[in-house]
C-alpha cells in the first residue's frame, strides 16, 4: 500500500496523486475516498497515532517500484496478517476492503 505524509497546504487527494507518482511511477484516475482510518503508528513510539485518509483508484499504467519501494507484490489479507511485520493501520484498511469485496 503506497503511503506518505501530506505536505503543508496539500489536500489528501493531491497527496495521493503525488505519492503514487513518486512511489509507483504512474498516475491515478477514478479516485474515490474509501474512508479515514486511525490506528497506532507501526514502528513509532507507543501511543503515536496514525491518521490515514485512504482512497481507491485506477492506475494509469503498470506500477514500477521506485527507490522508495523494495518490491511490488500482491497478497491476500490472510497472507498479510501472517507476515512477521504487520502494520495495524494497514491491516485495518485491508479488512475494510475485503468487507467491501474489493480484495481477497
TrEMBL record:
Gene3D superfamilies: Nucleoside Triphosphate Pyrophosphohydrolase. Residues 1-97 form the Nudix hydrolase domain. PROSITE patterns: NUDIX (PS51462), NUDIX_BOX (PS00893). InterPro entries: NUDIX_hydrolase-like_dom_sf, NUDIX_hydrolase_CS, NUDIX_hydrolase_dom. Keywords: Hydrolase. GO terms for molecular function: hydrolase activity. Its cofactor is Mg(2+). This is NTP pyrophosphohydrolases containing a Zn-finger, probably nucleic-acid-binding. It comes from Nocardia otitidiscaviarum.
Amino acid at each position: 500500500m503506497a503511503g506518505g505524509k501530506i505536505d503543508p497546504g496539500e489536500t489528501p487527494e493531491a497527496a495521493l496523486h503525488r505519492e503514487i507518482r513518486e512511489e509507483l511511477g504512474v498516475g491515478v484516475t477514478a479516485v474515490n475516498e474509501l474512508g479515514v482510518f486511525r490506528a497506532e503508528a507501526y514502528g513509532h513510539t507507543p501511543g503515536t497515532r496514525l491518521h490515514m485518509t485512504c482512497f481507491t483508484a485506477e492506475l494509469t499504467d503498470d506500477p514500477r517500484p521506485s527507490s522508495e519501494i523494495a518490491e511490488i507484490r500482491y497478497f491476500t489479507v490472510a497472507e498479510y496478517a501472517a507476515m512477521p511485520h504487520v502494520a495495524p493501520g494497514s491491516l485495518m484498511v485491508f479488512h475494510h476492503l475485503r468487507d467491501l469485496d474489493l480484495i481477497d
